Structures are given as structure tokens and as C-alpha cells.
User: Which sequence fits this backbone?
């Protein structure tokens, strides 16, 4: 990978979100994304399987980082550990990318389905990591799935906030609301 | 629909699970399911879109019944309401069908994906019903997703129990474990 390519990757993500917003997801081609980002189609396909994966590359990264953090954290309180690991992994998410991304996904049922499966995968990875750390099931699965539910609820609030806020604050609020719900 | 058909539907579900266990899901055709159930292929396709849907017809029914129960229940404690509505809807699930069904699904990644999406749909329906009943978001989403997580964790334990147990008991245990996780 050339040294300029991390930048090219960012340009492709921005270009894709712009084009999806302007023309719609279905009407945009990988070639158009590459052109707007100033890269060749070959470069595009070296980074992404298809135009859809431009939207989900960040989620894969989120999962990897979450698993890493959860593997190192105390799991005495499994739900808190999952939420903290996701919050940490999500701290690098850029709101200016997250907002148009959510808009594209919410407008396309097949993307919503893909997003839902990515969240299932995130929960499975968290549960698996907890089990490796000695947390038995069903506690591991419950903590993982509830932790992902907290993240998703918080994320929805965050991208919808009219003024930019901190995702970490929204996550703590959602965790508090889950506690209140169970109370 | 002829008066004998509810019975035919049950026979098709049994026949499908038998064949999936004997030959594998991919290797079984709708025609073979119809033949073993003693119905015509036309009857099969009047009941099910394809062989995959034989496995998920019960989940659609579960969702409908859950929405109905949740629409009538007190939602002062939203998570308890979701769990009670799912437990009520799930009380008619037959363990002798649930066990081979889980075995088929766990052996096929595409069926696991489908099952995951059905659970996402179940959670969305529960959240929507809670919102209609006046529970605001994110409390509605959190209660719905955690309630479905409780159900799924309990279901896994239930189908894996060497001796038959009551699903309702497993659900109450899982709810207790979620409370303990949040403690």
C-alpha cells in the first residue's frame, strides 16, 4: 500500500457519502466514487469489496478495536466492560461522517439489514471475548447484546442531536436508562 | 383453505425438519418436503414461500402474538412487559420441534443470518409497540432489545437442556441474570 493511501481511503469514504446523498445509494457506482475521490477504480477495489462496504468498513474496525479493549479490561462487571470497550472503540467516529452515513442507511432497507447483521456480529464478538475471559453463558450473551443495544440507542440519539454532542455522554445516558428500565 | 390444512401445515413442518436432519438443508427440496408430508407441491407453496420459510413461520407467529399481548399489557415496567409478552407468545413452542430446528439453523450460516434478522424484527416490533403505548425512546428500544436478548439467551439454554424444562422458567432466570449483570 502506497504511503498516500490512508488519505485516499478517507477521500473515498467522503466521496461515497457525498454521492449517495446526491444521487441515492442505488444510482451511484464504484467508478463514480473512485473518480470523485481522484483514484483509479483499481485502487477502489483494493480497499473495498463493493460500494456497500464503504459504509461498513468503519464497523469492522469498531469490532476489532472493541475486542482488543475487552480482551484487556476487567470483566468483573461484564455489561460495564462491554459498554466501555465499545465507547472506547467508537470514540474515533467522526460525527460529520456518521450523520450522512445514517441517512443513507436509514433510506435503504437492504443497508438497514446489513447494519443489523453487523450489530449482531459485534454482539457475538463481545460475547465470545467475555467467554474467553471466563464469563459463563448466558451472562456473557446478555451482557454483550445489552451492551450493543445501549450503543445503538446512544448512537441514534447522537447522530440526531441538532448540536454536536459527545457520543461517550450519550452512551452513559443510555446505560443509565437501561438500569432504570430494569430497576 | 380446506379444513384439513392446519394439520397439513404441521405435517409439512415435521417433514421438513426430518428431511433437513437426514439430508441437510441445502440438499432438501420443497417437492421432497411435500411428498413426505403427503401433500402436493402446490399446497406446499400455498403455505410457504420456500423451504427456508418453513423454519421461520413460527417466528412470524411469535411476533404477531407478542405485539398483541404487549398492546394490552401494562407498560409501566417496559422490559418486564416485553419479556412477559414474548414468554406468553412463546409458550406454545413445541420443544420437539424447537430442538431439530435449532440444530438445522446452527449448522447453516445463511439460516443463522436469517434468524438474527428475525430477532431484529421482533425487537423493532416490540419497540414500536412500546412507543405507541407512550414509552419514549431510547427506553423503548433498550427495553425491546434487552427483552429479545433475554428471550434468545433463555431459548438457547432451553433447547440445550438434556431433560425437557419449561421455557418460561428459563426466561425468568435469564431476566434475573440480566438484572445481576446490571447490578
Assistant:
Amino acid at each position: 500500500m502506497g504511503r498516500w493511501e490512508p488519505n485516499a481511503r478517507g477521500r473515498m469514504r467522503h466521496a461515497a457519502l457525498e454521492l449517495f446523498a446526491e444521487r441515492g445509494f442505488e444510482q451511484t457506482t464504484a467508478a463514480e466514487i473512485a473518480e470523485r475521490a481522484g483514484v483509479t477504480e483499481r485502487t477502489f477495489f483494493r480497499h473495498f469489496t463493493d460500494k456497500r462496504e464503504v459504509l461498513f468498513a468503519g464497523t469492522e474496525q469498531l469490532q476489532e478495536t472493541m475486542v482488543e479493549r475487552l480482551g484487556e479490561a476487567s470483566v468483573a462487571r461484564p455489561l460495564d466492560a462491554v459498554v466501555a470497550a465499545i465507547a472506547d472503540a467508537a470514540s474515533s467516529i467522526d460525527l460529520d461522517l456518521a450523520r450522512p452515513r445514517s441517512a443513507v442507511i436509514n433510506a435503504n432497507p437492504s443497508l438497514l439489514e446489513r447494519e443489523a447483521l453487523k450489530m449482531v456480529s459485534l454482539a457475538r464478538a463481545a460475547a465470545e471475548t467475555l467467554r474467553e475471559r471466563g464469563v459463563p453463558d448466558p451472562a456473557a450473551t446478555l451482557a454483550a447484546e445489552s451492551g450493543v443495544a445501549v450503543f445503538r440507542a446512544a448512537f441514534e440519539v447522537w447522530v440526531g442531536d441538532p448540536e454536536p454532542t459527545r457520543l461517550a455522554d450519550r452512551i452513559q445516558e443510555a446505560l443509565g436508562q437501561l438500569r432504570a428500565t430494569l430497576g
